Fold:
Amino acid sequence: MSYGGYNQVGYGSNPYDQRDGGAGGNRYNNYSQGNYNQGGYSQQGPFDDPGSVEMQPYGQPAGADPNAILNECREVDRALDQIDGQLDTLERMFKQVLARPDLSTNEITNLSTQVMTGYRALVTRVKNIKSKPESGNPRNAPQVGKVDRRLKATINKYQTLEAEFRRDSQAAAERQYRIVRPDATEEEVRQAVEDPNAPIFQQALLNSDRRGQASSTLRNVKERHEAIQKIERQMVELAQLFQDLDQIVVQQEPLVENIEQKGEEIHDNVVQANTEISGAIEKARSRNRKKWWCLLIVLLIIIIAVIVAVVVTKPWQQNK
Structure:
């Protein structure tokens, strides 16, 4: 059955599908294809002239689009806008199914599958963005950090929605079972809800005075049980997606450590160079002082020689 206009929020067609969807149909196809040619990523930049000697930013190849990272971040933002809309729709569908146990969960399953497909593609894309050296540039880093945090926030929101639906579905199944078998113990209710195919549930149907209602309850509980199992699998995958987003940082730690080590080596070399320069300056000053002393000694010798010459020649001139 339909949930009154939920298909309008992207439900019913996969925005991450690789098939041609007409105008605008390929808007998000690049998330699943890994193709980032849209937005000018593969277009030639302003540095195509072979004779150009203009300096390029560090870590950015010549001819690359300087706005490539920012453009990709904007596209991720737009995709997250759509997922936010899907989560709002999913939340409304959860509430309707919980209010009416007879409603099918097929549409919830389909929309959840679309959301998970979107998350997988966006996690891959954000990891690709974060792995590029230019993502750490002061110009790009704030936007990269923003989309990374927003993607994690939407994953968190989805985890919360599914956890609440799982809890409420479990409680609803327990209530339905108690209607069929009011005298059931807590342990019997728990076992029946955890495994609708267990003999305890089948026995409750045989012993129930409300066969029709019991059959309907069994069908509903089985359907909720399958939905809960799928949610549990998705929760595990969502946790892995979180780890994948953070893993890129872990993978870059050796590079950061290497940069820090090189920085320390440069610092040590600078200190050593300063020490050697200081020693050279001191030696130069010492040589200069010695030169002045030598010059002073030479001047004293000349003065003494002049005085001696005057003293020696003056008596001789008087005797003459």
Confidence is low (pLDDT under 50) at residues 1-59. The chain has seven helices and no strands.
